[in-house]
Amino acid sequence: MFGRKNEAPTAQETVDQAAAAQAGATERVGKGAPTPRRKDQEAARRRPLVPDDRKAAKAANREALREERMKTRRALDTGEERYLPLRDKGPNRRFVRDIVDARWNLGEFIMIAALVFVLFSFIRNIDVQLIVMAAFWVLILLVIADSFMLRRQIRKRLTAKFGAPNPGDVWYGVSRSLQLRRFRLPKPQVSRGQYPS
C-alpha cells in the first residue's frame, strides 16, 4: 500500500469504469437532472440580510403573521390540535380540558360574586355589607375546596390514562376551572356531564 507506485489501470478496469459511468448517467436521466453541486445549493439558499424592497418584505411578513394568528384563532375555536398554542397542545391537555368542561365548577362564579359584592358595597347599611362580606368569604372557601377536589380528580384520571401526571397539567385544569365557561380558550368541546373516557 505505502511505497507502491501507481499502476496504470488494466483494460478490464477501464471497461468496468466506463460501465459504471454509463449506469450513473442512466440514473441521472431517470431522476431528471444531475445532482446540483454543494456550492450551487448554498448559493441558492443564501439571501441578503436586508431585502432590496423593505416595504414589500415588511408587508409580506405582516401578512404571514396575520395568517398565523388567524390559524391559531380558528384552532382555539375548533380545538384543532395542530395550530393550538404550545400551552394547550397534547392529548393530556385535551383530556384535562374535557374533564374541567364536563363538570360544574364553583370557580366559574367567583367573578360574578365579586361584581355583586362590589355593587352591594355601595349600600351604606352595615348589616347588608357584613352579610355580603360573609357570603363572599364562604364562597371563596367553597371554591378552594372545589379546586382541591378537582385537582384530585384530574390527578387520578390522568394517572389511570397516561401514567404519572405532570404537575403543570393539574394546575392547567384548576386554572381553567376558575374561568367562566363561555370565555375559556380553547373553547369547550364537550357538554356538561360528558366526561372523557
Automatic annotation (TrEMBL):
<keyword id="KW-1133">Transmembrane helix</keyword>
<feature type="compositionally biased region" description="Low complexity">
    <location>
        <begin position="10"/>
        <end position="26"/>
    </location>
</feature>
<dbReference type="InterPro" id="IPR021403">
    <property type="entry name" value="DUF3043"/>
</dbReference>
<feature type="region of interest" description="Disordered">
    <location>
        <begin position="1"/>
        <end position="71"/>
    </location>
</feature>
<feature type="transmembrane region" description="Helical">
    <location>
        <begin position="104"/>
        <end position="123"/>
    </location>
</feature>
<dbReference type="Pfam" id="PF11241">
    <property type="entry name" value="DUF3043"/>
</dbReference>
<protein>
    <submittedName>
        <fullName>DUF3043 domain-containing protein</fullName>
    </submittedName>
</protein>
<feature type="compositionally biased region" description="Basic and acidic residues">
    <location>
        <begin position="37"/>
        <end position="71"/>
    </location>
</feature>
<keyword id="KW-0812">Transmembrane</keyword>
<feature type="transmembrane region" description="Helical">
    <location>
        <begin position="129"/>
        <end position="150"/>
    </location>
</feature>
<keyword id="KW-0472">Membrane</keyword>
